[in-house]
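Subject: for your reference before the review

Hello V.,

The reviewers asked for a structural picture of the protein, and I figured it would be easier to keep everything in one thread rather than splitting it across files. Below is the amino acid sequence we used in the manuscript, unchanged from the supplementary table.
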Amino acid sequence: MAVFASASAVGCVAVALIQQKFYGSPFSSGYGALSGLFATEHIVPNAMRYAAWLWQSHTPVWLLALGAPFLIPSRLTALLLFALIIANVVCYLPYVVFNDWWYLRFLLPGIAMLIVLTVASIDAIVRTKRIRAAVTTAATIVICLLFMREVRARNVLDLQRLERRYERAGIYVAAQLPPNAIVITSWESGSVRFYGHRKTLVWDALDAAWLDRAVAYLRMRGYEPYLLFEGWEEPIFRQRFSASTMAKLDWPPAAEIAGQVRIYRPDDRERYLRGDAAPTEYVR
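And here is what came back from the structure prediction:
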């Protein structure tokens, strides 16, 4: 354990130094300061969400894991696994609250150990080989059917198609936007940098009074600003920067990608008001 902790500490120190270099503090990251990410008021909402999502997506069978310390011969192993599960959960209970079930991924290290303990409990409950085989077979079939139902209900097999908008938008940025483009975006900031190879400015970290000043500053530095949003972001952007005419988004986008992502060129607003704006390019 000491060797493991010592080796892990090297990585922790490296991350702290990197964050100090880029963000001015070892406790700040690209996601912002710790004070904005972690808060005690997040604990109860996250606990309710994680419990509900785990119950729904993994079926109640995981509750059998709670009996592992009393059922399996190696109680110390069970308690160690539970300690690691608790450590995983404790890290994320105070974290930002999300409303989509797939944020249960934060608990994936703990879920893997929970599955091990569940299987160990079932194995310990069923003693004889004949009964063990029958119960294991029945449990496997029932759990698989329940999981298949959840897969269909949650559109898991469609996620690749639905999530491809990030790649498509990034590829469009790389192919169609000029090299000096800087994309003002939020939800797709990472994918624009990765696929589009363009710098980004995250608008929801920008002061509500600074949109026009930020665009003017970027132009002074030789950048050409673009606005990129998912559909649900546009009302939030309008509300946040309501004092700016640019935030009205009252002109057609330069491009619409997969029916979900829109790219606006701020200069097009004046052209549109004069009646000579270019048509929107629709990309499937």
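For the response letter, the relevant points are probably these. The beta strands are 28-29, 32-33, 181-185, 199-202, 224-230, 255-257, 261-264, 281-283. The mean pLDDT is 90.

Happy to draft the paragraph if you're swamped.

O.
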